[in-house]
Design goal:
Layout (H helix, E strand, L loop, with lengths): L2 H9 L19 H10 L8 E5 L4 H14 L4 E4 L11 E3 L2 E2 L2 H17 L7 H15 L4 E5 L16 E4 L13 H10 L7 E4 L4 H8 L5 E3 L2 E8 L2 E8 L2 E8 L4 H18 L5 H10 L7 E4 L3 E5 L4 H15 L5 E6 L6 H7 L7 E4 L10 H10 L4 E3 L3 H9 L7 E6 L1 H12 L2
Helix pairs in contact: 1-4, 3-8, 3-9, 4-5, 6-7, 10-11
């Protein structure tokens, strides 16, 4: 398949990222993925894996782990989701995403295998996940960093045997919030933990430790972030792990929460090597690491940031970062759109929506997008000055017409909103 044929094939498959949310899916199983992997010769076992799950921060943590491993001289495969612009972003080898012809070929190989073996059709995510594992094996990567798509236990990525598992946190996303939700979500995330593995957790609580310990890991560790000072272009961190203490580590990313993700990444890589990392490796890795869609600067004068804050914890982290990292700017504008499955009032409240000079709501371009007018009404009920503009590009034009060079424009919410905003900013 060429790239366009691959996209057309994927469009014909069920895609739970744009259809009913994962928490509502019944009958989840790894059987289809295991069958495909077996026919391919189990490429998911071709190299050691660090497996990352969590409600927030797993994508940034995965990127940091990739950067640390690369700084150690390893050929690294990275699999993440969702993507911002093209699905090629999801599969990286040697810190470079797949080009379109290679992505098309990888997806085409999986499609032909499923058809030839007369297997039950895979989902969109299962197909791309299988393509990633096969590509990593073909490229002889030395270690793979794999981010879970949804939850963990029955996620398509959980056919790997992670030597190190990372659980960033446990939050109320992809769940109905019924009594007992936290324990149920924690158990699903802990489902990626394999017997004898090392587990790095971002929340050190007795209940989470009990849940993780039931999977029989070799160890459960939690790093500590001793300090996280704002610095020009990022943060200056002090990190303590069971194996070392690292002081004055510069991280070239904005946001206090990225310091916590960095601590998890350092701890995970030290567990992988069973040894502390050097200051030289941390300096090389964290000085150049990128986290697309996470407080990402895409334009200046006015300053425009993209952030995939789509649930209350992510929104709280964004609101805090805007005060700490960008508090010196003049007026603040917010362009916001999310998919269903979250309480808009909770997310907008966590964003401190009433403190923006203007909030412009838009409809995320997906079947699950919440209507701009409904979001606007919610924002107004919270005391925000808000306007509804259904399409994202006109919403950005509307804000730019009012913003000065010294102002701040934040685009937040669903990655489908960020995708359009990124393309819009590239043309300014």
């Amino acid at each position: 398949m060429d790239y366009r044929e691959a996209l057309n094939h994927l469009d014909r498959l069920i895609n739970y990222e744009v259809q009913p949310r994962a928490g509502a899916i019944k009958g989840l199983s790894l059987d289809k993925m295991l069958n495909v992997m077996a026919i391919l010769g189990d490429p998911q076992h071709a190299c050691p894996v660090l497996h990352i799950t969590g409600t927030n921060g797993k994508g940034s943590t995965a990127r940091m782990i990739e950067s640390l491993l690369s700084a150690m001289g390893l050929r690294v495969g990275l699999y993440t989701s969702p993507h911002l612009v093209t699905p090629c972003e999801r599969i990286r080898v040697g810190a470079a995403e797949l080009d379109q012809p290679t992505f098309g070929q990888a997806v085409g190989d999986i499609a032909r295998l499923v058809e030839a073996a007369e297997l039950e059709p895979l989902s969109w995510f299962e197909t791309v996940t299988a393509a990633a594992f096969a590509h990593f094996a073909n490229e002889a990567v030395e270690v793979a960093v794999v981010e879970v798509g949804m939850l963990g236990r029955f996620d398509a990525t959980n056919v790997v045997d992670g030597q190190v598992a990372v659980i960033t946190n446990v939050g109320r996303d992809h769940t109905d919030g019924a009594p007992g939700w936290w324990r149920r979500v924690a158990q699903e995330k802990a489902g990626i933990v394999k017997a004898g593995s090392s587990v790095v957790v971002g929340e050190s609580t007795a209940e989470l430790t009990e849940i993780v310990a039931a999977q029989s890991p070799a160890s459960i560790v939690t790093p500590a972030l001793l300090s996280k000072e704002v610095a020009v272009g990022g943060r200056l961190l002090s990190i303590e792990t069971p194996r070392s203490t690292h002081s004055d580590v510069f991280l070239g990313l904005h946001g206090a929460h990225q310091g916590h993700n960095a601590a998890l990444a350092v701890c995970a890589v030290e567990e992988f090597f069973d040894a502390p990392l050097s200051s030289e490796v941390l300096g090389e890795a964290f000085g150049s690491v990128e986290a697309p869609g996470r407080l990402e600067v895409v334009h200046r004068s006015p300053l425009m940031l993209l952030d995939a804050a789509h649930n209350p914890p992510g929104a709280q982290a964004l609101a805090r970062s805007l005060v700490e990292d960008f508090g010196g700017l003049n007026r603040r504008f917010l362009v916001f759109g999310i998919q269903d499955g979250r309480d808009p009032a909770e997310v907008l409240g966590a964003l401190d929506a009433a403190n923006f000079d203007l909030l412009v709501t838009c409809t995320a371009p997906t079947p699950r997008g919440v209507a701009a007018r409904a979001l606007c009404d919610t924002a107004v009920s919270l005391g925000a000055r808000a306007e509804a503009v259904s399409d994202i590009a006109p919403a950005l034009d509307f804000v730019l017409d009012q913003a000065d060079d010294e102002d701040l424009i934040v685009v937040a919410g669903s990655v489908t909103v960020l995708e359009v905003a990124r393309e819009f900013a590239a043309e300014l």
